[in-house]
Amino acid sequence: MKRKIITTSDGSKTIQIEDWNEQYHSIHGAIQEANHVFLKHGLLFYSELHSDSKPIAILEIGFGTGLNAFLTLIEAEKLKLSLNYTGVEAYPVQLEEINQLNYVELISESHGAIFEKLHEISWKKQHDITPSFKLEKQEKFFKDITATNEYNIIYFDAFGARVQPDLWTEDIFKIMYNALKENGVLVTYSAKGSVRRAMQAVGFVVERLPGPPGKREMLRATKHSVSE
After folding, report:
1. E strand segments, the chain
2. Alpha-helical runs (H) found in 58-169
3. Is the C-alpha dihedral spanning 176, 92, 11, 1 positive or negative?
4. Which of 92, 125, 167, 224 could form a disulfide with 158 if both were Cys (CB 3.0 to 4.6 A apart)?
């Protein structure tokens, strides 16, 4: 499928799949969306509730351009958090596309070498990106995830249900539910009623939250303990 680099409303670039009229990030602002959905309502929300010194395990559904991982690494440095990050991607983005993005320029030029490292490391192996940030990239379909009680946070950043409805079903969210530890959270930019109902059907407690620029709402789902 034909792809091109476009500039979103906050000046940050993303990749557009022209055949689908679908982007890797919001056209209303790639960086703004990532910060609002995944950092504010995912990482920061969870870390404020759980202030122990254990590493936080994050699963990203749709590693894509590495933007969410890059922002998370920088925020974790500020907060002095230790993270084990797993990014799942069925179709890895090519380096020539990554090199056209402007995330380092807009976010932190001092982290330029780290952004490159996120993309240059090998797949299927955990790497130390920094002393407190470990990354493993897994090239596979989301339906093939078999983790059980392994993650504290899931960044669910798959392509939208309009173009890939099979990624937003009860079957997929059951896999996500199983992958989370008790009291773990899943955050996504989507607020579709069908998505919320699919999450609830597999056991999640779901909240509607104010969305990022260009979206009225988003969803956060929590896996509560059986006793709650």
Report:
1. 3-7, 13-17, 22-23, 56-61, 83-88, 126-130, 133-138, 151-156, 180-188, 205-210, 217-222
2. 67-79, 95-98, 103-107, 112-120
3. negative
4. 167
User: Checking DSSP bridges between strand 13-17 and strand 3-7, what pairing results, if any?
Assistant: antiparallel
Distances (CA, A) of 219 to 49, 99, 189, 215: 18, 31, 7, 11
Q: Are 189 and 212 in contact (CB under 8 A)?
A: yes
Identify the residue whose tokens are 């559904």.
Answer: 61
| Partners of 18 in beta bridges | none
Q: d(Cα 10, Cα 30) in Å, to the nearest integer?
A: 7
Closest by Cα among 93, 75, 227 to 157? 93
How far out from the chain centre does Cα 82 lie?
17
> What angle do the packed helices 193-201 and 170-179 form, to 10 degrees?
50
Structure-token pair, residue 29: 């602002």
Q: Whole-model pTM above 0.85?
A: yes
Going by C-beta distance under 8 Å and a sequence separation of 6 or more, which residues neighbour residue 48? none
pLDDT digits (tens, 9 = 90+) for 122-162: 999 999 999 999 999 999 999 999 999 999 999 999 999 99
Pairing relationship of beta strands 151-156 and 56-61 according to DSSP bridges: parallel
